[in-house]
């Protein structure tokens, strides 16, 4: 079947065919006047899963995401906080990248800031003026919307409808209310760069055109962003880019739905949001990932604690199942690969893909199978779930170990005591390792196996029961015992 993606531009699901060997993807990044909320993070998690799937399909991928670090909102923050705009921007960029790392969102290959590409922006604006698509007035430069025949094609709007909604701000010098700013003259006290039109700074839309073309070429494969960016931002990006180069700009436009709060879009401007750093205090990253991926990316998600708690319960089921299987060799023939591929190829249908994982887990609980476990691990990895360890009840296990040691009778078996001493010594040497927890459980499991060989079933059963009381289940397969920590 091959990968199919819904392209906002055509309004259809299309076969995905990249232009070249490397799939080039541009994602509109944050305006970094404040820290990101969970709605922002969704857009980048969508890109993350898309990239992971493309890599699984064998594509090489090049990703670019900008930071709008100079803009009205940041200038406002500078005045408000009496701190330099660059410091404010870099602080919020750091917070955002930290959240990406925590959420296991693969970093983009490039994170250019608008302020680092003023030269390319000026060059593109100049080109647009030369070609008659833009004009300078009072130090501002505007794009002449009516000069671009295809304006409105992405957002399915026509010029006449737009005219009635367009308004002129008194401080602007537009010829036509439809026109938008490519370059803004600096007001006193504002940051500025020198340009052929005087001191000023770029408008918002032009930076995405200039930077994407600079890093990815004039035509690239996929452009992603939240659905709120379709109009006017992406419509304007297309107008500027196509007018400037005479070539197609992005070939596939992917837009993700909002995260809503009481049905409304989460937005910094209305104070209607949950910061990702706060959500991360209450929920593990994998739970947030599961919560977001339970909905196909084009649909909206209503933010609620109840749904996050549902995701938490579902995640604990995954976690409990896979614990103990972390070090399985990677499978080359996962079960249900055809179904999983069909789901992901169908415009990245993550809810269906997750459904397949949960089906496998259900089977895995019914029947111990390394194939099932390896398949589950394989798919979790594709969807970007990082391996995270369940709670490790170290103190409880140490308590069991001490109880068992106290019950070993020296007169009963010198062999067993020697083994116990051995194990105890081993324990001392592993104390500082990351593997401390599994190792102490394994010490107990080895001890139990020895006890069973010595036919001391009473103490062997004592170990099993005490561990079970501490939430650790033992599974025996012949001489080999494994364990699993039950999720709390
Ligand atoms: Zn953009």
Tell me about this structure:
With 488 residues, the chain is of the alpha/beta class. It has 17 helices and 15 strands. It folds into 3 domains: 4-270, Rossmann fold, CATH 3.40.50.620; 283-382, Anticodon-binding domain of a subclass of class I aminoacyl-tRNA synthetases (Four Helix Bundle (Hemerythrin (Met), subunit A), Up-down Bundle), CATH 1.20.120.640; 394-485. The chain has helices at residues 38-56, 72-81, 85-102, 118-130, 159-165, 204-216, 230-245, 276-282, 285-293, 305-322, 337-345, 350-366, 370-382, 394-407, 414-430, 436-453, 457-469, and strands at 4-7, 12-15, 22-27, 60-65, 134-137, 140-143, 180-185, 200-202, 220-226, 250-256, 259-261, 264-265, 301-302, 472-477, 480-485. The strands form 5 sheets. The chain has a 4-stranded parallel sheet with strand order 4-3-9-10, sandwiched between helices. Strands 5-6-7-8 form a 4-stranded antiparallel sheet. Helix 16 (436-453) packs antiparallel against helix 17. The structure holds zinc ion (ZN). Zinc ion binds next to helix 7.
């Amino acid at each position: 079947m091959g990968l199919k993606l819904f392209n906002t531009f055509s309004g259809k699901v299309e076969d995905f065919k990249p232009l070249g060997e490397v799939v080039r993807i541009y994602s509109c990044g944050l305006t970094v006047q404040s820290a990101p909320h969970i709605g922002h993070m969704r857009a980048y998690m969508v890109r993350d899963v898309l990239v992971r799937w493309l890599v699984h399909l064998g594509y090489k991928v090049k990703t670019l995401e900008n930071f709008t670090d100079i803009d009205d909102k940041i200038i406002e923050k500078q005045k408000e906080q009496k701190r330099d705009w660059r410091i404010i921007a870099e602080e919020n960029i750091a917070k955002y990248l930290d959240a990406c790392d925590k959420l296991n969102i693969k970093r983009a290959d490039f994170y250019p800031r608008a302020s680092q590409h003023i030269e390319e922006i000026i060059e593109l604006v100049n080109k647009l003026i030369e070609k008659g698509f833009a004009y300078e007035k009072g130090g501002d430069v505007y794009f002449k919307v009516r000069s671009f025949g295809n304006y409105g094609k992405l957002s399915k709007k026509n010029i006449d409808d737009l005219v009635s909604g367009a308004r002129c701000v008194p401080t602007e010098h537009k010829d036509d209310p439809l026109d938008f700013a490519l370059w803004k003259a600096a007001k006193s006290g504002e940051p500025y760069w020198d340009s052929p039109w005087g001191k000023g700074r770029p408008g918002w839309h032009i930076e995405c055109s200039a930077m994407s073309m600079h890093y990815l070429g004039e035509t690239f494969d996929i452009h992603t962003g939240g659905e709120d960016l379709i109009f006017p931002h992406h419509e304007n990006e297309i107008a500027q880019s196509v007018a400037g180069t005479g070539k197609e700009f992005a070939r596939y436009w992917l837009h993700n739905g909002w995260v809503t709060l009481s049905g409304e879009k989460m937005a910094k401007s209305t104070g209607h949001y949950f910061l990702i750093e706060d959500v991360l205090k209450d929920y593990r990253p994998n739970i947030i990932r599961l919560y977001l991926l339970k909905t196909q990316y084009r649909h909206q998600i209503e933010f609620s604690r109840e749904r996050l708690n549902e995701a938490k319960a579902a995640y604990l089921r995954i976690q409990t199942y896979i614990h103990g299987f972390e070090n399985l060799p990677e499978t080359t023939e996962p079960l249900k690969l055809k179904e999983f591929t069909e789901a992901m190829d169908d415009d990245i249908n993550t809810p269906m893909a997750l459904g397949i994982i949960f089906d496998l887990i259900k089977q895995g609980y019914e029947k111990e199978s390394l194939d099932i476990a390896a398949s589950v691990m394989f798919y979790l990895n594709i969807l970007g779930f990082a391996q995270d360890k369940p709670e490790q009840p170290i103190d409880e296990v140490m308590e069991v170990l001490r109880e068992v040691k106290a019950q070993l009778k020296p007169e009963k078996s010198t062999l067993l005591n020697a083994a116990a001493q051995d194990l105890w010594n081993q324990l001392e040497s592993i104390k500082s390792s990351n593997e401390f927890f599994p190792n102490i459980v394994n010490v107990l499991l080895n001890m139990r196996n020895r006890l069973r060989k010595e036919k001391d079933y009473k103490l062997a059963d004592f170990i099993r029961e005490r561990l079970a009381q501490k939430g650790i289940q033992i599974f025996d397969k012949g001489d080999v015992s494994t364990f699993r920590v039950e999720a709390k």
